[in-house]
């Protein structure tokens, strides 16, 4: 019997040593969880975590903090989220912050946001305390201003500040801040473009904000737009001029002058073209007169042949023509009729 009992003793001793090797490192966590009012199994939870290569210390401390804060979470959820590559500490902290702010945030939703690569703590903080983003983004805009043109052709430079709150329901899959900035910028440019005059934008900037807010620009995004404030609006190109109105009126007068000159030049060109056309018509009429005069001798010859015109009649007509020519020479007008214009 002594020969058989020795291996049994050795096996039992090895079992005890292995058990102590697994239990001793986690016994402190078990005691801490017990005194914290949290039920934790040594073998099923603590030792099992070590065998699954999950840090029991992180899981139990996170579980205790959540349980003490009244958060509905269990060890299996925390362990599964850790194995999925998420941060269980961030998830529980975000759930605690949301609970204190009376925001409903379930573990599955918080875990999905965390696994999607979003900062769940920052998202909850932004939902509680809205943040302000500049439009346009100063890091991506050389001038830091939006360029818009009113209906009267005056360019305006605009800068806006957008206050946003995180929309936890659409945070996973929702568009980011860049989309909000792009949409707000487009809305501001469109609102100014629909104004009859740049003066309307300068006198009432909040009308721009109202038009942009009514457009529902936060649809399908991870944020909810709280307000849009026009931080700065100015006329482009007159930043160093004191009297902006005088400068704009002078520019407008110069533009009107150029336009009127162009219209006058167009009318002059049309008058010249009409004059040339009338001259051409005069030449055409004169050609017809000469053609008609060339037919007179033929008609006279025909009249002689038919006996309708006598010699005395012919000489009488020649005398009349001579008298007419003499009167014209005495009046100083020797030019042929076709030379008069």
Please describe what this structure looks like.
- This protein is of the alpha+beta class and 341 residues long.
- It folds into three domains: 2-128, no CATH class; 131-235, Band 7 domain (Tetrahydropterin Synthase, Chain A, 2-Layer Sandwich), CATH 3.30.479; 244-339.
- Helices cover 62% and strands 10% of the residues.
- Strands 1, 2, 3 and 4 form a four-stranded antiparallel beta sheet that branches.
- α1 (2-35) packs across α2 and α5 packs parallel to α7.
- The radius of gyration is 50 Å and the shape is rod-shaped.
- The model is unreliable at 337-341 (pLDDT under 50).
Short recap of the structure:
Helices cover 62% and strands 10% of the residues. By secondary structure, the protein is α+β, with helices and mostly antiparallel strands.
Per-chain topology:
Elements: H1 2-35, H2 42-51, H3 56-68, H4 75-83, H5 88-100, H6 107-115, H7 120-128, E1 131-135, E2 146-149, E3 155-166, H8 177-193, H9 198-203, H10 206-213, E4 223-235, H11 244-306, H12 311-330
Antiparallel strand pairs: 1-3, 2-3, 3-4
What is the CA–CA distance across the termini? 154 Å
Report the sheet with the most strands, covering strand number, pairing sense and barrel closure. 4 strands, antiparallel
- Strand residues, percent: 5-15%
- Please state the overall shape, judged from the principal axes of the Cα atoms: rod-shaped
Number of helices: 12
**DSSP E strands, number:** 4
Listing every helix as H and every strand as E from the N terminus to the C terminus, the arrangement reads HHHHHHHEEEHHHEHH
Low-confidence stretches: 337-341
Structural class: alpha+beta
Radius of gyration: 50 Å
Proportion in helices: 55-70%
In round numbers, the mean pLDDT is: 81
- What is the total domain count? 3
């Amino acid at each position: 019997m002594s020969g058989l009992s020795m291996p049994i003793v050795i096996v039992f001793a090895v079992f005890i040593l292995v058990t102590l090797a697994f239990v001793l490192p986690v016994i402190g966590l078990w005691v801490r969880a017990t005194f914290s009012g949290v039920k934790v199994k040594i073998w099923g939870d603590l030792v099992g975590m070590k065998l699954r290569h999950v840090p029991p210390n992180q899981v139990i401390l996170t579980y205790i903090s959540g349980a003490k804060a009244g958060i509905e979470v269990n060890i299996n959820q925390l362990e599964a989220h850790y194995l999925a590559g998420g941060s269980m500490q961030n998830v529980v902290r975000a759930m605690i912050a949301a609970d204190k702010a009376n925001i409903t945030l379930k573990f599955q939703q918080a875990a999905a946001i965390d696994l999607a690569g979003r900062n769940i703590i920052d998202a909850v903080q932004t939902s509680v305390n809205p943040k302000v983003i500049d439009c346009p983004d100063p890091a991506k805009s050389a001038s830091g201003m939006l360029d818009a043109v009113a209906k009267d052709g005056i360019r305006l430079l605009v800068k806006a500040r957008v206050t946003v709150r995180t929309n936890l329901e659409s945070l996973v899959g929702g568009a980011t801040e860049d989309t909000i900035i792009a949409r707000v910028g487009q809305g501001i440019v469109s609102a100014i473009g629909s104004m009859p005059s740049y003066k309307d934008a300068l006198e009432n900037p909040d009308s721009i904000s109202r038009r942009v807010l009514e457009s529902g620009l936060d649809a399908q995004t991870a944020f909810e737009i709280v307000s849009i404030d026009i931080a700065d609006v100015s006329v482009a190109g007159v930043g160093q001029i004191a009297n902006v109105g005088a400068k704009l009126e002078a520019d407008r007068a110069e533009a009107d002058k150029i336009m009127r000159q162009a219209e006058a030049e167009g009318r002059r060109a049309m008058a010249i073209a009409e004059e040339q056309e009338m001259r051409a018509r005069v030449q055409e009429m004169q050609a017809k007169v000469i053609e008609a005069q060339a037919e007179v001798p033929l008609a006279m010859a025909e009249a002689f042949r038919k006996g309708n015109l006598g010699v005395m009649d012919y000489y009488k007509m020649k005398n009349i023509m001579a008298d007419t020519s003499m009167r014209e020479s005495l009046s100083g007008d020797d030019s042929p009729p076709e030379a008069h214009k």
